[in-house]
Amino acid sequence: MVTTSVRLPREIVEEIEKLSRDEGVDRGTLIRKLIAESLKEYKIKKALELYREGKVSLWKAAEIAGITYTEALEELKRRNIPFKYNSEDLEVDIAWAMK
Question: Does 86 reside within a domain?
Fold first, then answer.
């Protein structure tokens, strides 16, 4: 592991300390957990933005986000992002299915 420093407002530190006591874990463990969850959410959000803008396919967005295609479909639904499926997508899916 690598050690890094960050300046945080007192209110955030107090909230972290309260949550770590409530969960029965040390502050460092809770901070690592919160950062990991936030990074996962950030990657999903950015990947689905690229998908919404038509810059990547849903397959690629799922890959960027580090989730499965099925999970990406679930995220679309959860975030009210329309699923785009056109004739090119159908042709690709048929070609894949025929292999």
Answer: yes
Can you give the residue range of the structural domain that contains 44? 10-98
Q: Which residue has the tokens 């040390």?
A: 26
User: In this structure, what DSSP letter does residue 79 have?
Assistant: T
- Among residues 27, 71, 29, which one has the least CA distance to residue 48? 71
Split into its structural domains, the chain has a count of 1
Query: Using an 8 Å Cβ cutoff, are 48 and 61 in contact?
Result: yes
User: Does residue 68 belong to any structural domain of this protein?
Assistant: yes
Closest CA to 76 of 89, 87, 90, 62: 62
In a domain, 2, yes or no: no
pLDDT digits (tens, 9 = 90+) for 60-94: 999 999 999 999 999 999 999 999 888 887 887 88
